[in-house]
UniProtKB/TrEMBL annotation:
Function: Part of the outer membrane protein assembly complex, which is involved in assembly and insertion of beta-barrel proteins into the outer membrane.
Domain POTRA: 39-106, 107-184, 187-275, 360-433
Signal peptide (UniProt feature, chain positions): 1-38
Lineage per the UniProt record: Bacteria, Pseudomonadati, Pseudomonadota, Alphaproteobacteria, Hyphomicrobiales
Compartmental location: Cell outer membrane; Membrane
Subunit structure as annotated in this protein's UniProt entry: Part of the Bam complex.
Protein name: Outer membrane protein assembly factor BamA
CC per GO annotation: cell outer membrane
Record carries keyword Signal: yes
Gene Ontology BP term (one): Gram-negative-bacterium-type cell outer membrane assembly
Keywords in alphabetical order: Cell outer membrane, Membrane, Repeat, Signal, Transmembrane, Transmembrane beta strand
Predominant location: membrane
Natural source organism: Fulvimarina endophytica
Family: Belongs to the BamA family.
Length: 825
């Protein structure tokens, strides 16, 4: 053992001096680390601060005296102090038991100023930046604000805007932050083009997209502002378009947007692969759940063998089947569509397989992103609520309903696991958009009771106070007309899908054969029976006054002198005059006095029937109306497919002066005659009948028809007349056929469409058929053909028609050109 020890000592003694030194250094470092880890903080010394209190900094550090502090702990102190945004630099060190925190304070922002901006106001830019007065200045935050301002300008089509930040020292540790902006020119979309499309041309596909090529009206419509998000949304719109028209293999290979910096314009190119077009093959409903009657479920399907394949029809079938199964007690039934593609026959068969889904329940609905819209407005669109069986199909239908409201830019619905394995959290993320609207209208009307320039101003809010309510106040003014209206609708009355509302109105017209003043209103209720069928009920009340029955002095049309009686008193034409000849006997617009001489009376007409009705006014009408509506139109503003059917009655006699029942009906069908050229065809039919319930029908309770039934005639241009004055009819019927199409060689972005049409109809029947000089009580057919120009302008719809009557009566009043204009923005 002793010999071994000598050998070990010898080897150590012969080791190099370098190794010995290294071992000594390592030992000293280890001792130092052990000392640092074991160091106890007895005191915290804060240095460099002038505005922030020592106690505040100590609190931010979260270090307690009497605790050990490692190097990792010191790093954490640095992070916490930097995260406050109060300091531009922080240094942390430890000397014995003293922790030293040395800080350089950030300046305080005195003002945030914007210079050079006009397209975006200061208020808008303040919402984009996070640097704020009285806050701590941070260079990193200012840089982020510069990027945010650029993004704000990109969103309004000015992606070449230049933004620089300037910091102005004003003393005492305070600064002004100034954002200097050069807004630049609007970035436009010069061209949108497609590659690989054969079934549909570029012009048709552009209509599907929200992005538009820059044109004459782009500065108003603002739809030529490029953004990558909008392009992604348009890609999805194109997919839906193709999938719903049989192209189940459609895919977008690429979509690019190249900016020409010299012209400041984008060139958008979308490359697609359309694939083959399919029709529906064999359709089968199958179930693995005992008790499900599959044969009865076929009536719920929107897909039919032989029809063009449509993904939308498959989705609607899923919703219908899920609803039917849930209503039959199969709450957890899960419907899965399975496609059977036959490439040879180009058909896709669909098997709707019904399985028992997992027993999952909705733990809660979590609504996010809504700053204006109340939570319950979003929740009520869901057919499932907390505690109900979770059903993905019903959740997706709720998403579609929310999108249809028009309150949100985007709606995203996702799910997350709940607190239990069988619980699901449904998360709804929305991005709200403006729902208020100031509308200004102007134009020129021809024919009818009011002719000449017209203007309208209105304020509409579709999500009033975030409650989902609709309200509109409007006023209209014309050369010889005035009208005012107020409308309000609560779409979910008492938490049910009952749309309850009211309307108030007042209208004055001093044109046509006689003056008219109407004041009234209604209270209405609409209840959905199915997704497409709605029942409507309303109570209506109105008061009407016609002409002027206050009495008119009669004048000699030759001398201009008043007619006077033997006592020298002026002879007046009044409705209460004992001599009815003064106002009932008429000739060429003049009234006969007691001696048979002509005297002008501008508030009476050539029709004794109308004159008597004028003298009997004012009238009041108290009625209840009800209707049933069937609506499958794909678009309310410009339908390309679907049906609209409406039938209803109005019963008057609940008080008031009128006692009648009116029955009316209307049916319209739309279809796309040519997909490539976007030619839309439509046919419609309408009819009505009114009958007295008590005494004779009042003349003003009749129907008055003209160009609204057969174009080419004036507003009251057809039907029974007396001495050339319309007295209305008790029955009408009509039909219209029309085709509209984009104008060739005119950009569709301008919103112009042409139209060709053919109309036929008649207005007949009268309770005054035995009166002198009454004509037109028979059902003589009127017909016309014509062309029209439609402009979907940024201010509203405009239409000009030229119609040539093919069948008319000698006493009808025709009008070849008709012009109507109303505008909103």
């Amino acid at each position: 053992m002793m010999a071994g020890e000598k050998i070990l000592r010898a080897s150590l003694s012969t080791a190099s001096s370098t190794a010995v030194l290294a071992l000594a250094i390592v030992g000293m470092q280890a001792a130092s680390m052990a000392s640092a880890e074991a160091a106890v903080v007895n005191r915290i010394d804060v240095r460099g601060n002038s505005r922030v209190e020592d106690a505040t900094i100590r609190s931010f550090s979260q270090v307690q005296t009497g605790t050990n502090l490692s190097e990792a702990d010191q790093d954490a102190v640095l992070q916490r102090l930097f995260s406050t945004g109060l300091f531009s630099d922080v240094r942390v060190s430890q000397s014995g038991g003293t922790l030293i925190i040395d800080v350089d304070e950030n300046a305080i922002v005195n003002q945030v100023l914007f210079q050079g901006n006009s397209k975006l106001k200061d208020e808008q830019l303040n919402q984009a930046v996070r640097t704020s007065p009285s806050g701590a200045y941070s260079r990193a935050q200012v840089d982020a604000d510069v990027a945010a301002i650029r993004e704000a300008y990109t969103n309004i089509g000015r992606s070449d805007a230049v933004v620089n930040a300037q910091v102005q020292q004003i003393g005492q540790g305070r600064v002004n932050v100034i954002y200097n902006i050069q807004e630049g020119d609007r970035t436009k979309i010069a061209q949108i083009s497609f590659v690989g499309n054969n079934a549909f041309g570029d012009s048709r596909l552009k209509q599907v997209m929200a992005l538009r090529e820059s044109g004459l009206l782009s500065f108003i419509q603002r739809n030529d502002i490029y953004s990558e998000e909008r392009l992604r949304m348009d890609e999805e719109a194109l997919r839906k378009f193709y999938y719903n028209r049989g192209f189940a293999d459609f895919r977008i290979i690429s979509s690019t947007a190249q900016l020409d910096p010299n012209e400041n314009t984008y060139f958008v190119t979308i490359t697609v692969d359309e694939g083959e077009r399919y029709t529906f093959g064999n359709i089968v409903v199958d179930s693995t759940i005992p008790g499900v009657d599959t044969e009865s479920l076929y009536s719920e399907l929107e897909t039919q063998t032989g029809e063009v394949y449509s993904a939308e029809d498959v989705e609607e079938s899923l919703v219908n089947l899920t609803d039917r199964l849930a209503g039959s007690g199969f709450a957890f039934a899960q419907v899965t569509p399975r496609g059977n593609r036959d490439f040879a026959s180009r058909t896709i068969g669909v098997d709707y397989v019904i399985d028992q889904g997992p027993r999952a329940y909705v733990e809660r609905l979590e609504i996010r992103g809504n700053t204006k819209t109340r939570d319950y407005v979003i929740r009520r669109e869901f057919d499932v609520s907390e505690g109900d069986a979770f059903n993905q199909v019903l959740v997706q239908r709720a998403k579609q309903r929310l999108e249809n409201l028009g309150y949100f830019e985007t709606v995203n619905v996702s799910t997350a696991p709940g607190n239990e394995p069988d619980r699901v959290i449904v998360i709804v993320d929305v991005v709200e958009k403006a729902t208020g609207e100031l509308s200004l209208g102007g134009g020129y009307t021809t024919g009818g009771d009011s002719e000449g320039p017209v203007a309208e101003i209105g304020v509409t809010e579709r999500n009033f106070l975030g409650r989902g309510q609709f309200i509109k106040v409007s006023a209209g003014f014309g050369t010889d007309s005035r009208n005012y209206s107020l409308s309000f609708t609560e779409p979910y009355f008492l938490g049910q899908r009952l749309a309850v509302g009211f309307d108030l109105y007042r209208s004055e017209t001093t044109a046509g054969d006689y003056d008219t003043l109407r004041t009234g209103g209604d209270v209405r209720v609409a209840a959905p029976i199915t997704e497409n069928i709605t029942a409507q009920v309303a109570y209506n009340y109105k008061e009407e006054e016609f002409g002027d029955n206050v009495g008119l002095d009669l004048f000699n049309p030759v001398t201009g002198e008043r007619f006077r009686d033997a006592a020298g008193n002026a002879i007046r034409s009044t409705c209460g005059d004992p001599n009815p000849a003064l106002y009932r006997q008429t000739f060429n617009g003049s009234v006969l006095d007691a001696n048979g001489a002509a005297a002008t009376a501008p508030n009476f007409t050539n029709s004794p029937i109308i004159n008597q009705a004028i003298c009997d006014s004012p009238y009041s009408t108290s009625s209840i109306s009800y209707a049933l509506v069937y609506n499958t139109l794909d678009n309310a503003e410009q339908p390309r497919d679907g049906l609209f059917l409406q039938a209803g009655q109005e019963y008057a006699g609940l008080g008031g002066d009128a006692e009648f029942v009116k029955t009316t009906g209307k049916a319209s069908a739309f279809t796309l005659l040519n997909e490539e050229y976007d030619v839309i065809g439509s046919v419609s039919g309408t009819a009505g009948h009114v009958a007295a319930l008590g005494d004779d029908l009042r003349v003003f309770d009749n129907f008055f028809k003209g160009k609204d039934l057969v174009r080419g005639f004036e507003s009251k241009g057809i039907g029974p007349r007396q001495n050339g004055v319309s007295i209305g009819g008790t029955q009408y019927a009509g039909a219209q056929a029309e085709a509209t199409f984009p104008l060739p060689a005119v950009s569709r972005d301008l919103g112009f469409r042409g139209a060709v049409f053919a109309d036929a109809g008649t207005l007949w029947g009268s309770d005054f058929g035995g009166a002198p000089n009454v004509v037109g009580t028979d059902a003589a057919l009127r017909a016309s053909i014509g062309v029209g120009l439609i402009w979907d302008s940024p201010f509203g719809p405009l239409r000009v028609n030229y119609a040539e009557p093919l069948a008319k009566e000698s006493y009808d009043e025709t009008e070849a050109f008709s012009f109507g204009f109303s505008s909103r923005f």
